Amino acid sequence: MDLIARLRNWALARPRVLLVDAPGATTFRWSVEAELDRRGWRRAVSPADTDLLVVLGGPGPALAEAVDVLWSQVPEPRHRVDVQRARDVAVALDEGRAALVRRAGSGARGDDRSSPASLLGKNEDEDADDEGMDHGSGHEGMDHGSGHEGMDHGSGHEGMDHGSGHEGMDHGGEVAGLPMASTGPDRDGLELDVLKVALGPVLPGWPTGLVLRADLQGDVLTSAELAWLDAGTAPPAQQQSDSQRAALDRLARFLDVAGWPTAARDARRARDGAAEGANRDEAQRLAEALARRVSRSRTLAWTAGGIGRRGSGGEALDRVRRWCDMASGQSVEDLPAMSLDGVAALVEGAEIGSARLIVASLDLSPVSAVSAPGHVHA
Amino acid sequence: MPEQTLAEVWGLVPAVLGIVAVGLVLGVVVAAVDRVVVLGASRAAVEPIRFGARLLVEQRRTMLAPDRLLWRIGCVAVPTLALLSLAVVPVGGRTLWSTSADLVWFNAMEALLWAAVWLVGWGPNAVHALTGGYRFLAQGLAYELPLMFALITAGLAAGSLRTTDILATQENLWFVVTMPVAFVVFVASAAAFAFWGPFAAPAGPDIAGGVASELSGVDRLLVEAGRAVFLGASAAMAAALFLGGDSGPWLPGPLWHLLKTLAVVAALVWVGRRMPVLRPDRTVEVGWMVLVPLTLLQALVVAVLVLNGFYA
């Protein structure tokens, strides 16, 4: 093996993985994350950061299309793996890595991929004759296009929705076929740029399949609306048999969003250790230490406090502390599930980072949306 | 009478190459220590090098309607400014070149970083990157004044803005003893302008990587390397300004400076990774209400000591 090939092999020995867990694949995701941690492979936070795209379970039609757009944003060398069953994961990851190295060696530059513009064009056509995909989010034709946002570029893709004429907003001209952001009054009474953005359906620590649509002024979200992709075809409720592991998982995802990687790492370790009989005691100690550290952290209270207050349920920080109790093994009674409209009211007017923390502090799954028809207010 | 600079002793080109090499080594050391602390495994120390090699074989991304020129300028400027700020940090007792206002030079490179990071966020025409750019500017408002006061306190005690003069003044007593606040503020500001650790909001995971969210290949390598070199250069500067640089018994001077730099890096990473990201809107409040008065008070104390001939 020549030196360059060896070097390439070494460089890609630990690829960055972007996980897309189709709704209902939660425990599946845990086993994949445990496998990634064992191998020392890190998780990507955006498509630009990705080498391997790993899709778990069977995404519905709208999520599958969103994943296609996401895939078009991943730079070469790249490889996509679809895994259906937990026991195939190790093999699939090994194959994915080998394919990645081959692809890097062949010098493929991804000329076969469709450009972002063509994908947008396609969406626009589909929007026109595919109203059935809208799932009652109240935006004619909007749903589909912005479902493809993937993890980034609210700006580019969203603009097309204006272009297709569903929104009666003025825009100040076009750039590259996209309308410019328009202006509107902000909370301080100033005229500020308004950008239509969509967050989701795939983001770090974000419930996969959830799409938040809002106006962005500076970094403040207004007129927020939330919807699940493929809400009509959501899988039946997956009963969480192990509430302690579930709490540790939620905690890990929240800590990821809060930018506390060492604590998130410990939460994952405790979650994965709790599954293995041999390390159970050690995992329990780790979980208790982590729960103490997080619930007593003054820095976290200072930086994440005072957001997402929800009636009797307290603010985001209270919900996280509840999870800490659950994570250390105490039994805590369940809070009532929250409707998406209730969540939208919570993130209304929040800074984008606070909105992410609020969503991460709620246990959202498409199942609860189905069980609460008509989006009843909480 | 200014001492000879590295450029005069070694010739300009070897001296510049030497400083670049020192900068890159410092950057790799910072990134390696960071990885080891974050992943909790000592084998993670090679990950930054692997990451760099991976980025070299990766494709550059294009976006829809990017501001390509400004984007590329921003990406190149981050590591360039980091290396330029290292030019006035004493390496082996000498700086690359001496400007009679070294502290101002260091601060200017760091202030130009505002523009560079803003361009990296602005360039790709994407929401998360732009939000990261906004956040960096907000964060800059919080750390810039305290950082300037911290820097000027060291210059005040030495009666000179030249880093080699500041080193010479500390032969008897390290400045950290009389100016602990300035030292802590300087190191924390270094983390803030490298938007790292608790100050990583401009590149936070809550905005999918922020300013770095659309970077891939060489562009990402430049920005990430620049951040690490900035941290390494700031640690070396902190060791020179407050910890006596290369003064110490038994060992040769450069080794002392290296050890002190490594100690600052280790302490910075260990403390910084034990807390979550701080929100820029809240750090601005602390920066102005707490840190500005504190650093001014610190400067006042040092000024009184100078008038009493304490440092003479």
TrEMBL record, chain A:
Residues 133-173 have a biased composition (Basic and acidic residues). Residues 103-184 are annotated as: Disordered. This is Uncharacterized protein. It comes from Blastococcus colisei.
Automatic annotation (TrEMBL), chain B:
One of its GO terms (biological process) is aerobic respiration. Its main location: membrane. Coiled coil: none annotated. It holds the Pfam family NADHdh. It is found in: Cell membrane; Membrane. It comes from the Bacteria. It is a multi-pass membrane protein. GO terms for cellular component: plasma membrane. The chain crosses the membrane at residues 12-33, 69-91, 111-130, 142-161, 173-200, 221-243, 255-272, 284-311. InterPro entries: NADH_UbQ_OxRdtase_su1/FPO. One of its GO terms (molecular function) is NADH dehydrogenase activity. Keywords: Membrane, NAD, Transmembrane, Transmembrane helix. Belongs to the complex I subunit 1 family. This is NADH-quinone oxidoreductase subunit H. The lineage of its organism: Bacteria, Bacillati, Actinomycetota, Actinomycetes, Geodermatophilales.
